[in-house]
Specification:
Length: 198
């Protein structure tokens, strides 16, 4: 029977290699999400302010004309541009899939809000409508357009208004999305601060 003999130098080499591997591992960080982006936080906060202002104006409007889509069309145009710009920014940042997905949901929720405000959704949503909203985003025009997820093409819906129930539910849903984006950015910021302390 051949005996395998473990020598002290061999044990010392194995321990040295394991020690070096442990030391190397403690010096490296694995980044699973992108780093904090101050501009993303600033942009999302600005969108949050616009949305809060929009819902306050709706809540305090005295006449149907003040609550109409036509009176809010500028808001939808601004948000379409702001979210498109934000989408491009977050897409350009490596390892930012979580933020990209949250911004996409925000875009879709505001697109649905615009459709509801114009009275463009009259039946349960179809797969084609959901795809249209995901693909095309917010439609700030006064028309209902099926290519943006409307149930039917209608020319002028500028006088349509949101019911308080729909407005309240939409506001809560959109706020949850905004808070999720900001929470993730704050967590990234804390992670960057912790990393710089090493």
């Amino acid at each position: 029977m051949a005996s395998s003999r473990i020598t002290k130098p061999r044990v010392a080499r194995v321990l040295a290699v394991l020690g070096a591997a442990c030391l190397l591992q403690s010096c490296t960080t694995i980044q699973l999400v992108s780093r904090y982006d101050e501009q993303t936080e600033t942009d999302v906060t600005a969108i949050q302010t616009d949305i809060a202002t929009f819902f306050v104006k709706l809540d305090t409007a005295l006449t149907p004309a003040e609550r109409s889509f036509g009176a809010s069309q500028d808001f939808y145009s601004r948000e379409a541009v702001a979210i498109a710009t934000l989408s491009q920014r977050v897409a350009a940042i490596p390892k930012n899939q979580l933020t990209i997905a949250q911004v996409e949901l925000l875009k879709e929720n505001i697109a649905w809000l615009a459709l509801l405000h114009k009275g463009c959704v009259t039946a349960p949503l179809t797969a084609a409508q959901k795809t249209a909203v995901a693909d095309n985003g917010i439609d700030p025009s006064i028309a209902c357009r099926t290519d943006y997820g409307a149930s039917a093409d209608l020319p002028d819906q500028s006088k349509s208004t949101l019911t308080p129930l729909v407005a309240g539910s939409a506001h809560k849903l959109i706020d949850q999305g905004l808070v999720a984006i900001l929470t993730l950015e704050m967590a990234k910021k804390r992670g960057d601060s912790a990393d710089s302390g090493k």
